[in-house]
Design brief:
Blueprint (H helix, E strand, L loop, with lengths): L2 H8 L7 E7 L3 E6 L4 E8 L2 E5 L2 E5 L3 E5 L5 E5 L3 E8 L12 E4 L2 H13 L7 H16 L2 E2 L11 H10 L7 H7 L4 H12 L3 H18 L4 H7 L5 H12 L3 H8 L8
Antiparallel strand pairs: 1-8, 2-7, 3-6, 3-8, 4-5, 4-7, 6-9, 9-10
Length: 265
């Protein structure tokens, strides 16, 4: 979507929000730009990758990326992504997060936006649809926020290691291997992780596997196939990791993602 198109859409406010359903093909991108309105981006399928002020945010289907008005951002995706972009007027953003963050989206919000997509609603211009739009804003205000579910960095030597793991989240080689590949000690690698990611190497890798798993589950892959692709020797080991990090089983996450009706592609 051309940013100029977004500007044209937003010029029609005071609608309470504008809803855009976008489709990105693999290896596509959007140039860096700023908007005068807030943007709530979430993947209907696939995983969103948005660069915001030097930080890469990844968002699987159960999470949204919130970008306040005036914040510079760009978009890039390795895989195919079908997602919703909700433009919220600056005046309605006063009670929303003031910094970019990842938000946990509710089944209610997914249902409202799926209904808008099904009916082709870009602007909610009836009283009924405007009330539904206000529900989306209220749900955004109440959503649980994370600074970033899967933090990233451009710092060397950590950035190339993270990029390699993102390309192959099922790679089972340990921190010692990756440290040696970068010409540093394992202890130095672990220190870089704490300094630039705020968590350990293993914690970051498990979060990456959760993000990858959510995308695969949303695409309909069986749990056994997801476990194998992520390097687990048994489905039960994968299920235990997933449940420990998300508080629910993979099947529950799949059902929750599917609670909202989906429009035909």
């Amino acid at each position: 979507m051309d940013p100029a198109t977004s500007a044209q859409l937003a010029s029609h406010l005071p609608y309470p929000l504008a809803c855009r359903i976008l489709h990105f093909t693999p290896h596509s991108s959007m140039a860096r730009h700023r908007s005068d309105w807030g943007e709530l981006n979430f993947a209907i399928s696939g995983i969103m990758e948005i660069g915001i002020e030097g930080v890469l945010y990844l968002s699987p289907p159960q999470y949204a990326i919130w970008i306040p008005p005036g914040v510079s951002h760009c978009c890039q995706n390795e895989g195919e992504v079908h997602y919703a972009c909700i433009d919220i007027p600056a005046a309605a953003c006063a009670s929303l997060p003031t910094a970019p963050c990842t938000l946990e989206i509710s089944p209610v919000m997914r249902a409202v936006l799926a209904d808008f997509e099904r009916r082709g609603i870009t602007y909610p211009d009836t009283p009924e649809d405007r009330r539904m739009a206000q529900v989306v804003i209220d749900q955004t205000r109440q959503a649980r926020a994370y600074a970033s579910y899967l933090p990233s960095t451009t710092e060397l030597p950590l950035a190339p290691i993270l990029a390699a793991l993102q390309r192959e989240p099922g790679d089972k080689r340990g921190a010692a291997h990756w440290a040696a590949s970068a010409g540093i000690t394992e202890r130095t690698l672990l220190r870089h992780c704490q300094q630039h990611l705020g968590m350990s190497f293993n914690d970051w890798r498990q979060r990456l596997r959760v993000v990858s798993a959510l995308g695969m589950l949303d695409a309909g892959l069986p749990v056994q196939d997801v476990a194998r692709r992520l390097g687990y020797s048994t489905p039960s080991a994968f299920i235990a990791m997933f449940q420990r990090l998300t508080g629910e089983s993979p099947d529950s996450a799949r059902r929750r993602s599917g609670d909202a009706p989906r429009a035909s592609p």
